[in-house]
Q: What sequence folds into this?
């Protein structure tokens, strides 16, 4: 009986970790999309990066930490474009984001 309970607990933990990892990957991909869009906006138009990132509106689905992260990635993308630096590739962005 004890072995069955431990097995069920481990199964639920693994399933939750996989679901949580999937949600994290979706969030990171969404953040990368915002990052890339802010990069393009910074490259094309004379826009203030702080104004651009503060203009992003969010629903209630995001936590304060997630909102701050997305706003910071937008600022970063905009500043990179304004200073004519290369955009970070998707793979390294996703790796960095997933580690947080």
A:
């Amino acid at each position: 009986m004890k072995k069955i309970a431990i097995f069920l607990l481990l199964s639920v933990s693994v399933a939750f970790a996989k679901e949580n990892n999937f949600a994290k990957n979706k969030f990171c991909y969404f953040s990368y999309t915002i990052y890339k869009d802010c990069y393009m906006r910074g490259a094309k138009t004379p826009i203030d990066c702080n104004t651009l990132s503060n203009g992003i509106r969010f629903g209630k689905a995001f936590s304060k930490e997630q909102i701050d992260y997305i706003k910071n990635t937008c600022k970063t993308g905009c500043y990179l474009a304004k200073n004519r630096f290369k955009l970070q590739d998707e793979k390294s962005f996703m790796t960095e984001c997933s580690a947080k």
